[in-house]
Design brief:
This protein is of the alpha+beta class. It is built from five helices and nine strands.
């Protein structure tokens, strides 16, 4: 598996990412192109695409903050789902950092969300029992509920507050 760090919208591989990103996440959970271009300027932001030969497997977008890593978006191309590539891709991030990794998932209300929770549990993440609502990327007045998961251990309320501040000030 080959990794490519995408650093701007003009780089080869950006269109692979952009197509999968837009087809994998609802509008409230994603940026428009102008916002994405702006995020590339933030030194905390990272976007890694993964390829097998010339086939696009998927991507990780994450924020490498001083005390933790926030896994913002993670998607695997449909033809590679269910055969272990998601675990391989996520394992790359896990092995490259000694920091706590924080991510969000949708509430558990159907089979797809149960499978997602199970996948992250198998990868060593734990569900946090903290109330968490996040602001929409497109409508700053709209909030929606998500579940916070973290690697290795649960996070404290102070860590959640730090994450909320970073999310508001850096990610959005």
């Amino acid at each position: 598996m080959k990794q490519i760090k995408i650093i701007n919208q003009d780089q080869g591989g950006f269109s692979d990412f952009w197509n999968l990103y837009n087809s994998s996440f609802p509008i409230i959970e994603r940026r428009n192109l102008e916002q994405q271009v702006q995020v590339f300027r933030n030194s905390f932001f990272n976007l890694i695409s993964f390829y097998k030969d010339d086939k696009y497997i998927g991507f990780l977008s994450f924020w490498n903050f001083p005390s933790y890593v926030y896994l913002e978006h993670f998607a695997i191309n449909e033809e590679f789902r269910g055969v272990g590539y998601g675990a391989k891709v996520l394992s790359e991030l896990i092995k490259e950092t000694s920091k706590l990794i924080i991510l969000e998932i949708d509430p558990i209300d159907d089979e797809k969300s149960r499978r997602r929770l199970s996948f992250y549990n198998k990868m060593g993440f734990v569900k946090n029992d903290l109330d968490y609502k996040v602001q929409s990327y497109q409508n700053k007045e709209e909030f929606y509920e998500l579940i916070i998961m973290s690697s290795v251990r649960k996070i404290s309320k102070d860590e959640l507050n730090t994450f909320r501040t970073d999310f508001t000030n850096e990610v959005l």
